[in-house]
Every structure is written in C-alpha cells, then in structure tokens.
Design a protein that fits this description.
alpha+beta, 7 helices, 31% strand
Length: 349
Amino acid sequence: MALRSAPFLLLVLVAVALRESCFGASSHSLKYFFFSIADPNQGQPHFVSVGYMDDQILDHYDSHTRKVQPRVSWMEKVGKEDPQYWERETHIAHDREELFKENLETLRSRYNQSKGLHTWQHMYGCELQGNRSKGGFLQYGYEGKTYITFDKETLTWVAPEPQAQITQRIWDALPAQNQYIKSYLEKGCIDWIKKYLPYRKEMLLRTDPPVVTVSSKKEEEDGMETHICRIDGFYPREIDASWTRDGEVWLQDTHHGPVAPNADGTYHYWLSVRIDPKERERYRCHVEHDRLQEPLDVAIKVPESNQMGLIIGCVVGGLVLVCVIVGILVFFKRRQDDYNAVPRRNVAI
C-alpha cells in the first residue's frame, strides 16, 4: 500500500500545500493540521499536529514527544510572556490524541473494516485578508478523503458519503457547539492571528541583507560543471534571483528550488546552472531584494576538485608537522543532538 511507504509528516505537509492555495499572499492565515494513524509502522508516531502562521511552522506535537513545542524562534517569546502557554497547549493535545484514537476505532467499525492501516485527519484555519475581511474553514478526512466539512454560514455539516451522515446527524443536533465553532473561526482564531503578528513582525524587522553563496561541482562524465547559488536569511519573501551570462538572464540548463521558510521567520532559496567550465567567467548569480541597497552579482568560484591536489598537499604537510610537535593524534567524535486548538471542545463522532 502506497501510504505505508510515504513519510508520515509528508501527509500533513501535503494538506498544507493544498489548503495554501485558498489564501492570498497579502493576507495572514493561521492553520492547524492533525493526523492520526492506526497501526503505525517504522517507529512513526500515531498522532501528529502541526500549526502554521502563513507558511511558517509555529508549533509541533506528536505522540512520541508528548509535548507541544515551538518550531519558530519568535514563538518562544509567546511562552515567556505566558508561562502556562505550552503546558496548556500540551494538555489540549493530549485530549485530542485520545479522542482521535477513539474516532479511528469508531470509523473502522462503521466502515466494516479489519484492523490495519487507517488514517483520520482534521484541519482548520482562518484568514485575515488585506481588506480586513475574514475567512475560515474546518473539515475532517478519513483514509485521505473528505469525510465531513463544516458550513459556517448555515451552521450545518456537509457529509459526502453515507457513513459520514451518521456524524452529520449527531453534530447538526448540537447548535450551541456549531455556533461556537463559527465564532471561533470568525473571531477567536482571528484574535490569535492579531496576537501573533507583533511577535512575528518584531523578529522580522531586521535590516540584515540576504546571504548569497555559490558552490560548484564538476561532472566527471562529460566535464560539465553544476553551480548552485544559495540565498539565505531574507525577508520579505519576494526575491528576484537569476543566473546571468554576460549580464543577460540565462535560462538554459537552469533549475530553481522553492522559496522556503527558515525557523527564524526568514526565507531561503536556491538556483543552479550547468555550464561548460571554459565559460565559467561569463556567469554570475544575480540577486535583487528589498533589503539590498543594490543588486548583487556573485561570481563562480573554481570547483574544489580543481584544487584538490593543493589541498591534499597542505593537509599532509600539516599532519606531519603536528605529529612531529605533538607526537600523538587525537580523534574527536561529533555528536549531533539530534490557540491554538480548534475550538477547544472536542466532540466524538
């Protein structure tokens, strides 16, 4: 089954990408995604939740760590100003984890399925647009398909298949709960956006320009070279970067990565080009950004492989000198350490 081999968190991030298209770039959004799985394999957690502010991960919880933890640096300040914040969110996550486990068993029975791999997803979010208008959504999914969706205009639930109509009748009979969800999506969730924005803006009101580096690699098969231009630490998100040849934009044999967020709220980006090493001097990585006083044109460095003989000679000479003076060789070993809740009232299906 394809789902078994898919990375667990990828399923959550796919939902993020699909939902992202509903929100404009000039707006601010707050979104939460929850994923529960029966019969997890390869040591995967059976429950994961991820919160997003725009396209930045705010926090994360899973059934292994059992703690809601910040995933962007400015969220740590939220916890400092509200010492009970992370404890409170963790308690809510524990309750939701247990409820999701119960719901999976209910759905397996309702669909008359045997034990094995089954998934239960939930996502909700709100948006504060540039013109101050508001939007929001809330829905559940089973086995990767829409199970039931909340219509906040009619205060009713929409069920696309017969098994979900049982849940629909139960939840439609709870008008107070449905009114609460609507209020949360249109006000409570928006209030959290407004609460988070000052923390986020304070972190991002820096004047540091983007850092641009170019690395190179020689292709042994045909002698061609691949050069990668990495741009890091920039904000706002908008950036203009390209490879140029003789001062003109060069698109042939070029590839671009996505503009992706860093943990501190800034962004990073990369673009590569494949060229004949004889023409190396003709190419530049050209970068324009609001935080730069003037555009950058970064030249290509000689690939490291071209200097390998010199490097090896220096290293060997250095080792000999160290052996003569010190007489011992010490090896070092590195170690690599390796609200927000949907409406707080959880109702079983």
